[in-house]
Every structure is written in structure tokens, then in C-alpha cells.
Amino acid sequence: MFKNIVLLLLIFGFCNFADAQTTSTALKEETNIYERVYDAPLQVVGQESATFDELYAQRPVILALIFTRCTGICNPFLVKLKESLQFKDGDDSFRVMVLSFDPRDNLSDMHRLAQNLGLEENEQWAFAITDSISELTQSVGFDPVWDSARRQFDHDALLVGINREGYITKKLIGLRERGDLDLLTGSINNVFVPTYRLQNQNMLFSCFNYDPVTGKNKPGLGLIFLALPAVLTASLLISISILVRRSRR
Predict the structure, then answer these.
(1) What does the alpha-carbon distance between residue 155 and residue 141 come to, in Å, rounded to a whole number?
(2) Cβ of 14: how many Cβ atoms within 10 Å?
(3) Could you tell me the CA-to-CA distances from 241 to 2, 35, 236 in Å, in that order?
(4) Helices 74-84 & 178-188, crossing angle to 10 degrees?
(5) Domain segments of the chain as ranges
(6) What are phi and psi of 152, to 5 degrees?
(7) CA distance 185 to 61
(8) How do strand 41-44 and strand 125-129 relate by DSSP bridges?
(9) How far, in Å, CA of 117 to CA of 78, rounded?
(10) For 33-188, which CATH superfamily applies?
(11) 3-class secondary-structure state, position 130
């Protein structure tokens, strides 16, 4: 009986941990929204050098940040993105910019990546490098961490939507489906999305409250309620452990 109770409590605690992880991802997707992307100089495969603002001034950009030596998420990320955007093939309302954040990558590496994906002739896609990657990643809220033991970066699979004025309108993390990409392409083309809810004083139990003055998210009451089950679970487990020890004595 005692083992069953403990198992149920552990499962319950894990579910709350998963909810917290989802909240963390959602929060990351809200960082740097409506801020301008850094105007980095770009070297684009098969094209003349250009600055970022020259590209998004022509048409909005979906930015995918990867590195060619990645042994983890990068390749599945790009394959999924290509598959999910097939329904918009030839759509000239946006461009997909695949940009390496690894200083070791060069144009030959990016050209090889484009060939492997079968996109070297696709004018909707561009593959590029920049010598100002730190400034650009900071401007979009992307923070890859170098693991010297594995010689790999730990990073999110991040898509950034940038409109023709250079502002970040939406971010997506992870492998996403067609519906999410519809919202992303709509946002960079200034399409109104009626499902977005604005923060107001009546939303007392939000996990995070957006401050329009500072542009930052602050912890809200909802975050306390989200953490409460985990705290109660830990307290209950400690109490049960103490009672069991006393009964054995």
C-alpha cells in the first residue's frame, strides 16, 4: 500500500515538472518579441554579401539557427521545417534564412547542407554565415552553450519570425507542425491573430505578468500555484517517511 502511494505521488510530481518545463519553453518564446533583430552582415551561399536589413526589407524572414557539425537536433529540425513548409512552396511572402551560429562553419559547409536538403536551387531558402553572430543571437534571445567534452553546442531548435521592419513578431522552439508555421508566417506579414490574449489586471493567476514599460516578464500568482503541488508532494513524502521510521521503532 505504502509503495503504491509513493508511486502515485512521484507520478503526480513528474506531471507537474513537465508542466513547468512547458511553461519554461513558452516563456522563452516570448523573449525579445517586438524587438529589432541585429543588422548583421551576411555571406549568403550563391549570392552577393548583404546585410540583414537588406534581406528582410525585400520580404519577411523566418530565421533558423543551426550549425553544420551538429549531431543532435539540427538536421531533424531542418528536415521537419522543410516538410512543414512544403504547402507554402513558392510563396514569395517570406524567405527562410538558415544561419549558422558556429564560427567554424564556412560557405562551403552551408552549401553542402543546402545540397543535402535538396534546397540549393530553391529561391525561397537561403543559407548564410556571419562574423557578427554574437550580436545577432543576443538580439533574438538565443543562447547556445558550448560543451567542450562533446565538442557540440547545447541549444534550442529555434525559429524566429522577422517582419519587413526588422521586428521579431513570433518565436517557435522545437519541431513544429503546419498550424504553428501558419501563425508564424501570418505574424511576419502583419496578419491579425485573434487568439492572442492581452495581459490585464483581471488575470490574477497568470504564471508570468508582462510589464510593457520594461518589456520583461515578472513571476505571477499562477507560478506559485503551479509549484504548490510539488511542494505539497515533497512535504507529504517527508511526513510519511518520518511516520514509517517511528512505527518501526
Answers:
(1) 12
(2) 12
(3) 10, 51, 9
(4) 80
(5) 1-30+199-249, 33-188
(6) -140, 160
(7) 9
(8) antiparallel
(9) 8
(10) Glutaredoxin (3.40.30.10)
(11) coil
Distance CA 139, CA 55 (A): 17
141 has which bridge partners?
Answer: none
What pLDDT shows up at residue 231? Answer: 79
For residue 248, the number of C-alpha atoms closer than 13 Å in the C-beta half-sphere is: 6
Handedness of CA 66, 72, 75, 76 (dihedral sign): negative
Specify the DSSP element, H or E, that contains 65: strand 61-66
pLDDT, tens digit (0-9, with 9 covering 90-100), for 13-46:
544 444 444 446 677 888 889 999 999 999 999 9
Mean pLDDT of 220-229: 71
Distance (Å, whole) CA 50 – CA 223:
44
Identify the weakest region by mean pLDDT among 24-28, 126-130, 203-207, 238-242.
203-207
Backbone angles phi, psi at 206, to 5 degrees: -70, 145
* Alpha carbon distance 228, 137 (integer Å): 35
Distance separating alpha carbons of residues 130 and 99, to the nearest angstrom: 8
Q: Which residues of 84-121 are buried (b: 16+ CB within 10 A; e: fewer)?
A: bbeebeeeeebbbbbbbbbeebeeebbeebbeebebee
pLDDT at residue number 117: 95
What is the chain's mean pLDDT, rounded? 82
- CB contact at 8 A, 123 and 87: no
Place of cell 499562477: 222
Residue that has been written with the C-alpha cell 551560429 in this structure: 101
Q: Global pTM?
A: 0.69
